[in-house]
């Protein structure tokens, strides 16, 4: 980790804009984006398709230059000092891209470490350390093609950690993972934050944002539509998931037992079968107590939980707003 003052923001984006193409084909991906990520903080960068998230991550990782504005990582300018920025930064773009299935996890780490200009001695020391950090020691010498999605995602993270970055760009860390794998990956990410790593996270899942981030930056058509604490964001979103309870026979008497920690209910009934959606405002043990109270004593056949995708939240929040303003 680089010796920076705790007062220096880990990421500092000031008035960034990016235009692609020329004249008739011109597309303004970013108009005016300003925000900071403090040392040891996790900020979720959110926005619907085409909002500008990828463009911003590319600017921060020095792959793309901005058309205007400045981006700094640990105080280093992404355009003037790209090498220093790359030294401070770990970039984890997950999914199935980029790993070599026929190589072991250890050999993938060696390969990417060498591309990242780490020396042999450094790699000998770092590889076991990052394998331990992401809990892949036991699988280190297995071919990656035998890995689950969660293990692959862990390996991506390990590669991003090889250079001991103090800032991580984490793109969709839990996409395609089952709930257990997703939760265990989140715990690894939280452990990194506790070690002081600053993280800019993009995700389509509210649960990731809720469990990981302290603050939210919401992009819409290339401008920051909203910046707020996680508490404020989830309050505005209203609910974290849809729980669908299906049963047969007598409906629970919801009028007699008005729901508490659940925001709304929708009831569907066909013949003898019924289906009720409830929307918990947040995940807590109280939600399960409340579900037990509402549905105790009726014939429940199954319960399904669908974590809310952020698109649903944006549907209510991504109105035109500031995005209508003229580009600078
Ligand atoms: N190389 C490019 N040439 C032209 N237009 C581009 C280019 N890259 C991005 N854009 C446009 O810039 C806008 C922002 O794209 P960007 O990929 O940054 O959005 P995003 O928020 O990452 O979306 P998604 O969630 O769909 O990945 C879009 O309108 C996109 O079509």
TrEMBL record:
GO cellular-component term (any): plasma membrane
InterPro entries registered for this protein in UniProt: AAA+_ATPase, ABC_transporter-like_ATP-bd, ABC_transporter_ATP-binding, P-loop_NTPase
Gene Ontology annotations of biological process type: response to antibiotic
Location in or out of the cell: Cell membrane
Annotated membrane topology: Peripheral membrane protein
UniProt-recorded name of the protein: ABC-2 type transport system ATP-binding protein
Keywords, in A-Z order: Antibiotic resistance, ATP-binding, Nucleotide-binding, Transport
GO molecular function, one term: ATP hydrolysis activity
PANTHER family in alphabetical order: ABC TRANSPORTER ATP-BINDING PROTEIN, ABC TRANSPORTER, ATP-BINDING PROTEIN
Domain ABC transporter: 11-246
Domain of life: Bacteria
Signal sequence residues: none
Classification via PROSITE patterns: ABC_TRANSPORTER_2
């Amino acid at each position: 980790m680089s010796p920076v003052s705790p007062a220096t923001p880990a990421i500092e984006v000031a008035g960034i804009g990016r235009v692609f193409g020329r004249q008739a084909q011109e597309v303004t991906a970013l108009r005016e984006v300003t925000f900071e990520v403090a040392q040891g903080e996790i900020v979720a960068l959110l926005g619907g398709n085409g909002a500008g998230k990828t463009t911003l991550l590319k600017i921060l990782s020095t792959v793309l230059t901005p058309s205007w504005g400045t981006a700094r990582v640990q105080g280093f300018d992404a355009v003037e000092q790209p090498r220093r920025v790359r030294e401070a930064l770990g970039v984890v773009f997950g999914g199935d891209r980029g790993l070599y299935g026929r190589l072991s996890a250890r050999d993938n780490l060696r390969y990417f470490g060498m591309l990242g200009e780490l020396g042999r001695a450094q790699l000998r020391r770092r590889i076991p350390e990052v394998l331990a950090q992401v809990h892949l020691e036991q699988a280190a010498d297995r071919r990656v093609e035998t890995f689950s999605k969660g293990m692959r995602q862990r390996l991506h993270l390990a590669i991003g950690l090889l250079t001991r970055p103090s800032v991580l760009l984490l793109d969709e860390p839990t996409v395609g993972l089952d709930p257990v794998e997703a939760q265990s990956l989140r715990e690894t990410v939280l452990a990194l934050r506790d070690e002081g790593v600053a993280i800019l996270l993009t995700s389509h899942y509210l649960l990731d944002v809720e469990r990981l981030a302290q603050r939210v930056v919401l992009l819409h058509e290339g401008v920051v539509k909203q910046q707020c604490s996680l508490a404020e964001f989830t309050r505005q979103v209203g609910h974290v998931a849809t729980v669908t309870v299906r049963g047969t026979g007598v409906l629970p008497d919801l009028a007699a037992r008005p729901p508490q920690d659940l925001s709304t209910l929708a009831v569907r009934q066909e013949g003898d079968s019924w289906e009720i959606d409830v929307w918990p405002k947040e995940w807590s043990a109280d939600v399960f107590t409340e579900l037990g109270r509402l549905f105790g004593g009726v014939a429940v056949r199954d319960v399904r939980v669908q974590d809310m995708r952020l698109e649903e939240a944006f549907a209510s929040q991504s109105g035109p707003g500031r995005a209508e303003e003229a580009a600078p």
